């Protein structure tokens, strides 16, 4: 209630009480105190305490109004300070502002935390917000946190980051992320599939309904060549080599890497099949024939084609008694 309204209503109330008292008793009453007598109408004696109470109440309301006004002014000043402070924080300017009220205390600390240049610890009195800040810090540092109590949607960025952290902590979690996926339509799924390609067995990888790209196929072929326990059938390997769609040098390099894992006869047969599917694999096939000493087969091919000058040079040198590795042309 505004002060002027309070004064008006108080005067009306005092007037009504005085009139009612005067109607009931119009006589006077004398009070003596320390030899001093004071005679006033009974009605006035009746309303006098109310008048004193009203005066005190007016002073109280006035004082509260002044205090509220000063508080609002302080908040307004703090608002201006906070706006400048927020700009400075975002610009990376370290300047700890002093606020006259506690209104922006929590906002001040949250602004520090949300700054892209945030490096210092924050001190927030609100326990719930402080707990959330702690959760955000852990997520940012790659830790796995418990988010069930916050009842967040699956597409919430905190939930997604927590899934990334779980995947980073344990690559086998990729199976959980991808179990109901039909397409790789988000970054989390792509990251999980990438982890699966790098760590899962080929038997498990084949269970996923995703199309294998050139890069994926090349990664799997590299794993097969380098990892002793990573196995697949030769038909699967052939399909992956076809998907890789490499140039002649790429297929030669793959043939070199597979030479350490696959028996020569099997490897030559594999690249013979690949040669019938990919023309660019013909150099790799001839490379294997030369390196494994299958000279008759190599000559038969060279007799019907002039597209392989490197191998013709190698064969001419060999006929002259100079055995040079095919790696001279394919490094």
Automatic annotation (TrEMBL):
Instruction: Write the protein's name.
Output: LapA family protein
Which keywords accompany this UniProt record? Membrane, Transmembrane, Transmembrane helix
Question: Which lineage is the organism of this entry classified under, starting from the top rank?
Answer: Bacteria, Pseudomonadati, Campylobacterota, Epsilonproteobacteria, Campylobacterales
- Indicate the transmembrane segments per the record: 7-23, 43-63
């Amino acid at each position: 209630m505004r002060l002027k309204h309070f004064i008006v209503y108080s005067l009306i109330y005092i007037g009504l009480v005085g009139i009612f008292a005067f109607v009931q008793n119009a006589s006077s009453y004398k009070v003596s105190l320390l030899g001093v007598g004071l005679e006033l109408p009974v009605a006035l004696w009746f309303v006098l305490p109310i008048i004193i109470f009203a005066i005190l109440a007016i002073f109280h309301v006035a004082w509260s109004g002044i205090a509220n006004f000063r508080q609002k002014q302080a908040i307004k000043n703090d608002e201006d300070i906070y706006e400048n402070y927020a700009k400075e924080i975002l610009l990376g300017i370290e300047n700890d502002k002093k606020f006259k009220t506690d209104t922006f205390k929590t906002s001040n600390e949250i602004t520090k935390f949300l700054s892209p240049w945030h490096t210092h610890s924050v001190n927030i009195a609100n326990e719930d917000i402080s707990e959330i800040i702690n959760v955000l810090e852990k997520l940012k540092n790659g830790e796995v946190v418990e988010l069930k109590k916050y009842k967040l949607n699956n597409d919430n960025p905190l939930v997604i980051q927590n899934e990334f952290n779980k995947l980073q902590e344990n690559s086998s979690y990729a199976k959980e992320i991808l179990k109901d996926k039909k397409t790789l339509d988000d970054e989390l799924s792509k990251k999980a599939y990438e982890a699966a390609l790098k760590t899962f067995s080929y038997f498990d990888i084949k269970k996923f309904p995703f199309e294998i790209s050139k890069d994926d196929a090349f990664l799997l072929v590299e794993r097969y060549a380098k990892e002793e326990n990573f196995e697949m059938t030769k038909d699967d390997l052939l399909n992956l080599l076809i998907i890789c769609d490499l140039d002649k040098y790429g297929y030669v390099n793959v043939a070199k890497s597979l030479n350490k894992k696959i028996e020569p006869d099997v490897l030559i047969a594999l690249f013979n099949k690949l040669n019938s599917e990919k023309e660019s694999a013909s150099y790799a096939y001839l490379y294997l024939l030369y390196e494994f000493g299958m000279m008759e087969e190599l000559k038969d091919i060279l007799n019907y084609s002039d597209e392989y000058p490197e191998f013709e040079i190698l064969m001419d040198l060999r006929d002259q008694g100079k055995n040079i590795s095919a790696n001279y042309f394919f490094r």
